[in-house]
Give the backbone structure.
Amino acid sequence: MSSNNVRFSAPGERDYPVADRDLAEEQNEHLTRSLRAVRDNAAAPAEVQDLARKVLGGRLELKDVLDDPSGYRALTDGIAGMRESWRSMSPEDRQAVRARVEEKAEEAEADGVGATYRPR
């Protein structure tokens, strides 16, 4: 069990690092950190948090997320909400988001992480 007092919602639920053999080690580490952040984010929809728990718990592989009915619903509903938020932004706000993403990508590249990722 981890030392950061993470509470699990189901008995026997575990938190494993993602180890997808098709991803590089740094990608698996980044994905694991991201899933943990989603799982622990109180503002994230409960369905998305549960999906993160399933993947971290080893009950669902990343490649099977869209085949799982609850995973499909969680992701498509979440994307729909993000799409609406994006559409409601002003062009200036959209450009500010793009600039922040570019800045984070450059920082990650400087740190040697995600060197192949470039936002559009």
